[in-house]
């Protein structure tokens, strides 16, 4: 009896979703080939899944969101798949597409070579600030949060670089922590304990949302004691001998901060991949409809923020994971049976105005499907606990993927070329 491996690199939202989907829907539907079984191997730097959606609040207060609410052990979540699921704590170091192997550096520093029958790249992205990325064990992230919270307790001026949702949410959480909740009709705190400055390189915050929603976000931030600087870019942030941070702006001005949080963007985790598999943003280049990484050869796919097909975001994965995993099943069935492959399932990007951003524990802004949603709905959906109660456990244990979902095949196998 031989075992073939469906190898998944990355155990965040995309990787853990792909693993559950493969175990629940892909492997059970493969033709029974005598002497061959298929298993899923998930490789991730940490043994814990990090609910990074909650990062802006978890970083500020363990009373509001304790570690038990944003860290979840990965292996117990796959107890239902005993014998068909393997977990390797480590990071991909090199890929050999010709030999169908990935070299992994394990948590103990050893090198391990894993041969794959199929490969899903879901390595995600890394943020400039360690507050929003888990690179090692959960205990390291807890330690990072402890240090930040200790410094925040005495901070008089906090600067956040970046006008995207993470920057806006973090500014709101910090401002409320320092200055408290505003009065019902108050335009700002009467006796602010600390100053919070959000630096936005664009003319408005929250680039996916319309300007009117951005202006409402600014109003909510102002009420908490945070100001916004527009059309201003952070050039550098340097620690001083006094323990502060000197933030250098593109216009030549500087700001001295007690704390600086860099939320200016993300970096794809693709350093282990050859350049020919990447686009000009260092994301994994793929067929935008089938999510196949065609330059890597057959049976290689990409899901999540690391892929060239997406503008990012957790909500997008609900559309992408079923596409990649259905096409994986189609390709494996053809590989096993020797028959022509069946129809592809296609991904279509949802480019509607769709994003929600809590601002403190009581307010928020956003839109769904192009429709603006009121602050109370943002609070209900995300602002209460950053969707932990609603989505965390189903995401980790795979309940979100219990049903495969129906889809209608398109005629033919168009879209196989990404050119």
From TrEMBL:
Residues 6-311 form the FAD/NAD(P)-binding domain. Keywords: FAD, Flavoprotein, Oxidoreductase. It holds the Pfam family Pyr_redox_2. InterPro entries: FAD/NAD-bd_sf, FAD/NAD-binding_dom. It comes from the Eukaryota. The keyword Flavoprotein applies. GO terms for cellular component: cytoplasm. GO terms for molecular function: electron-transferring-flavoprotein dehydrogenase activity; flavin adenine dinucleotide binding. Gene3D superfamilies: 3.50.50.100. PANTHER family: APOPTOSIS-INDUCING FACTOR 1, FERROPTOSIS SUPPRESSOR PROTEIN 1. Belongs to the FAD-dependent oxidoreductase family. This is FAD/NAD(P)-binding domain-containing protein. The lineage of its organism: Eukaryota, Fungi, Dikarya, Ascomycota, Pezizomycotina.
């Amino acid at each position: 009896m031989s075992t073939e491996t469906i190898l998944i690199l990355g155990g965040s939202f995309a990787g853990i979703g792909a693993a559950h989907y493969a175990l629940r829907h892909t492997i059970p539907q493969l033709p029974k080939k005598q002497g061959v079984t298929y298993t899923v191997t998930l490789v991730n730097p940490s043994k814990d899944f990090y609910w990074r959606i909650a990062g802006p609040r978890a970083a500020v207060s363990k009373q509001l969101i304790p570690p038990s609410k944003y860290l979840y052990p990965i292996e117990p979540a796959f107890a239902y798949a005993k014998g068909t699921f393997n977990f390797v704590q480590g990071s991909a170091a090199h890929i050999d597409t010709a030999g169908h192997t990935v070299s992994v550096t394990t948590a103990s520093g050893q090198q391990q070579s894993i041969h794959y029958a199929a490969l899903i790249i879901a390595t995600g992205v890394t943020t400039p600030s360690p507050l929003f990325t888990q690179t090692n064990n959960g205990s390291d992230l807890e330690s990072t949060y402890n240090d930040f919270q200790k410094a925040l307790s005495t901070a008089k001026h906090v600067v956040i670089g970046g006008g995207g949702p993470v920057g806006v949410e973090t500014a709101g959480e910090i401002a409320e922590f320092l200055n408290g909740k505003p009065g019902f009709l108050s335009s700002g705190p009467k006796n602010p304990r600390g100053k919070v400055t959000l630096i936005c390189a664009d003319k408005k915050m929250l680039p996916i949302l319309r300007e009117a929603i951005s202006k409402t976000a600014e109003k909510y931030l102002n009420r908490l004691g945070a100001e916004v600087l527009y059309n201003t870019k952070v050039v550098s942030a340097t620690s001083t001998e006094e323990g502060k941070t000197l933030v250098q702006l593109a216009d030549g001005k500087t700001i001295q901060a007690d704390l600086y949080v860099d939320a200016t963007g993300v970096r794809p985790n693709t350093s282990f991949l050859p350049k020919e598999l990447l686009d000009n943003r260092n994301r994994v280049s793929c067929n935008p409809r089938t999510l196949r990484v065609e330059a890597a050869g057959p049976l290689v796919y990409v899901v999540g923020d690391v892929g060239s097909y997406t503008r990012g975001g957790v909500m997008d994965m609900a559309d992408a994971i079923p596409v990649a995993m259905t096409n994986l099943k189609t390709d494996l069935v053809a590989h096993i049976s020797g028959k022509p492959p069946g129809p592809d399932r296609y991904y279509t990007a949802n480019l509607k105005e769709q994003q929600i951003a809590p601002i403190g524990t009581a307010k928020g802004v956003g839109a769904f499907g192009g429709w603006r949603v009121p602050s109370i709905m943002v609070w209900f959906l995300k602002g209460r606990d950053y969707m932990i109660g609603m989505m965390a456990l189903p995401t980790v244990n795979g309940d979100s993927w219990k049903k495969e979902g129906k889809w209608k095949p398109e005629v033919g196998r168009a879209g196989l070329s990404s050119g």
